[in-house]
Amino acid sequence: MSKHILILAGDGIGPEIVTAAEQVLTRVNEKFNLGLTWEQGLLGGAAIDAHGSPYPDVTSEQAKKADALLLGAVGGPKWDTIERSIRPERGLLKLRSELNLFANLRPAILYPQLADASSLKPEIVLGLDILIVRELTGGIYFGQPRGIRELENGEKQGFNTDVYAESEIKRIAKVAFEMAKLRGGKVCSVDKANVLEVTELWKQTVTQLHAEQYPEINLSHMYVDNAAMQLVRAPKQFDVLVTGNLFGDILSDEAAMLTGSIGMLPSASLDENGKGMYEPCHGSAPDIAGQNIANPLATILSVAMMLRYTFREEAAAKAIEDAVGNVLDQGLRTADIMSEGMNKVGTQEMGQAVVAALG
Ligand code: NAD
Questions:
Q1: Staple partner for 265: which of 97, 206, 278, 281, CB 3.0–4.6 Å?
Q2: Which protein residue's CA is at the shortest distance from atom 38 of ligand 1?
Q3: Which positions make up the signal peptide (predicted)?
Q4: What spacing in Å lies between the alpha carbon of 285 and ligand 1's midpoint?
């Protein structure tokens, strides 16, 4: 198997956090003799500036060839006023759908060293380890018809369509059940089946797949409004949560905040064969770009997810996660996770400390 990575630094803090992650990748590649190779590409605002498109053909060719992609983040005020169809975020959506990256995995793990950073009481979040599996290429974000039309009375009306085929539901549910096998053996499927037919089919399909192929997994169902509430009331009741694109978007941000800092959370978006794009959950943070203060740990932990899920290098993945735990134990903190008595460091210093902790 070739082991080639496409690195897309993107915009804002993207280049800074990706540089730190690349140093970690270099070290782990040597240490574990992984044989990984990589090249750089352009996506988002950086690609608009160079090629007039957020996802140019040259990037598309590189992305198809790669086994995995590492992304910083895209977007920023510089491109917010250009025509909607060629904005940076459109490039990212196109890339995800072109590569069929339908399964978005977002772990929300609380590092015990950062329990104080959560807005919830430590006893509610200590030991938190949830995996949100969000369907990423279907549902209301892509459903047709969509648009803004004019009614007969001259009033404007906005409309979108939430659609899921059985096959789309099955493949994302399968990912959730497979992940649960590797973790706590529990899946909670989130829907709004009391109101929306599309999620009634979701619930039926998940239930059927469970009965046919995963009876050993503990499956439960929850309405999305209750799930939003339970996530802040008693989040540790969850192991794997699986849901559609819209509900997943919202619940995964809510779960992220339980851990205190979005700068700590990695994510993976996978296709059916384990090819994946790995990126931090946060955006390009234009407000702090270029100041060497962004937290690179989410991007570094995204490299760990890449090694685990695409390249099946568990030992190397675990080594990165342990190294991150180690630098937190040393008291090193970027500004977003800083607390009293800790040692404040910049993006570069944090990256170098993780490299050093890898040994
Ligand atoms: P954001 O995540 O970029 O920033 C939200 C807040 O969190 C800001 O105060 C920022 O300074 C802080 N923050 C984010 N990452 C951080 C880090 N690593 N370390 C320390 N602090 C961090 O979200 P936003 O402000 O809503 O969006 C900014 C831009 O990012 C927009 O153009 C948006 O479209 C884009 N965006 C891109 C992606 C992506 O590329 N996947 C995702 C979300 C937003």
A1: 281
A2: 283
A3: none
A4: 4
Ligand 1 centroid to residue 14 C-alpha, Å: 10
Number of alpha helices (DSSP H) and beta strands (DSSP E) in the chain: 12, 14
Task: Answer left, alpha or beta for residue 351, where phi above 0 means left and psi between -120 and 50 means alpha.
Answer: alpha
pTM of the model: 0.91
Catalytic annotation on 253? yes
Q: What is the C-alpha to C-alpha distance for residues 344 and 330, in angstroms, rounded to an integer?
A: 11
Q: Which domains does the chain have, with CATH numbers?
A: 1-102+275-359 (3.40.718.10), 129-258 (3.40.718.10)
**Is the peptide bond preceding residue 145 cis, with omega within 30 degrees of 0?**
yes
Q: Determine if residue 300 is labeled as part of a ligand binding site.
A: no
pLDDT, tens only, 28-65: 999 999 999 999 999 999 999 999 999 999 999 999 99
| d(C-alpha 49, C-alpha 196), whole Å | 42
SS3 content of the chain, % helix, strand, coil (to 5): 50, 20, 30
Distance, in Å, from the CA atom of 299 to the CA atom of 282, rounded to the nearest integer, reads 9
Residue pair 34/26 in contact by the 8 Å Cβ criterion: no
Query: Is position 49 annotated as part of the catalytic site?
Result: no
In tens, the pLDDT along 147-162 reads 999 999 999 999 999 9
For 206, 217, 227, 354, the CA distances from 220, given in Å and listed in that order, are 10, 10, 11, 38
> Residue 91's closest CA among 41, 164, 145?
41
